[in-house]
Specification:
flat; mainly alpha; 2 helices; 73 residues
Length: 73
């Protein structure tokens, strides 16, 4: 029960901060946004003559760079 309360309190504090930083064209895993809204945005934008649409899904970057490319901090 305590974990859930802490999780919810953290969400209430952090969500507005991150939401303000996201672009309006971002729909993935955001509150009050759906796949239907994303598709509608694509339809409207394409009808206005947009030449391309970008869809990206980053699954895992860990272990994909060679060791010498890693940034030391």
């Amino acid at each position: 029960m305590k974990d859930r309360v802490v999780q919810q309190a953290t969400k209430l504090v952090l969500e507005p901060i991150f939401e303000a930083a996201f672009r309006d064209c971002s729909f993935g895993f955001r509150p009050r946004r759906s796949a239907h809204q994303a598709l509608e945005r694509i339809r409207v934008t394409a009808n206005r003559g947009a030449p391309w649409v970008v869809d990206a899904d980053v699954q895992s970057l860990e272990g994909t760079l060679p060791e010498e490319a890693e940034i030391e901090g």
